[in-house]
Amino acid sequence: MSKPLKGPDGRVGDRLPDGTPAVSWERRWTEGALPLWLVATAGGIAVFFVLGVFFYGSYTGVGSA
Questions:
Q1: Rounded CA separation 40/47 (Å)
Q2: Distance (Å, rounded) from C-alpha 31 to C-alpha 39?
Q3: Residue 4 — pLDDT band, cuts 50, 70, 90?
Q4: Which H, E and C letters describe 4-51, residue by residue?
Q5: CA distance 49 to 43
Q6: What gap in Å lies between CA 27 and CA 4, rounded to an integer?
Q7: For residue 53, which phi and psi values (nearest 5 degrees)?
Q8: Angle at the Cα of 44 (from 58 to 27), degrees rounded to 5?
Q9: pLDDT digit string (tens) for 37-51?
Q10: 57 pLDDT above the threshold of 70
């Protein structure tokens, strides 16, 4: 026999009955299919890249007639 679902779609709720988070921030930061530290690092690199391209283009005149 299968276990009953915990929610309408089978996911665990965000909070426990006492109001505390079901998953601590430490576990969200380091565990999972795509850890948050990796997402934050990639996002930071992307921001620097986009800003670098913008400033490179504005100082070298790329695209201007």
A1: 11
A2: 12
A3: low
A4: CCCCCCCCCCCECCCCCECCCHHHHHHCCCCCHHHHHHHHHHHHHHHH
A5: 10
A6: 25
A7: -65, -40
A8: 170
A9: 899 999 999 999 999
A10: yes
